[in-house]
What we know:
Layout: H1 5-10, E1 15-20, E2 25-30, H2 34-45, E3 50-60, E4 63-74, H3 77-96, H4 105-108, H5 113-126, H6 133-139
Helix pairs in contact: 2-3, 3-5
Amino acid sequence: MVLTKDEILQSPKDAKEYEIESIGGSVKLRILSQKEINEIQTIESAGLGVLESQESGRRIKGKTTQGQFNNITKINATKQIAQSAKAKIRAVALSLSNEEETWKDTEVEQIPAPAFNEIYEKVSEINQLSPDVESEVDEFPED
């Protein structure tokens, strides 16, 4: 069955129930839109820091020979951890919010840690936020 534009655009608003063992019940989570995922990724990337790259060397026919590359990455670990936490909180708040109720980030921060982690794991799974590490390892070239 070929979906219409309206059906495709409607799909992120439909919430489904997911069992959360740590709270002994289920929660309704919805799939996030690409705009919402971009928002989450922007929040998280704000903590990544700065990459400075310098290149020196001779170029012959557009190729660098006898070149030297200096890369300096500056990461504030405290800021990166804080931004990652904010992104996770935002992802959970957006996914819990549906036509019946809206969650604020400050409310999500009050969820007990075991329940929050379990809910975030489900949010991450249904939105494919985490890379499939096994397939990436399988695709990594060997020496």
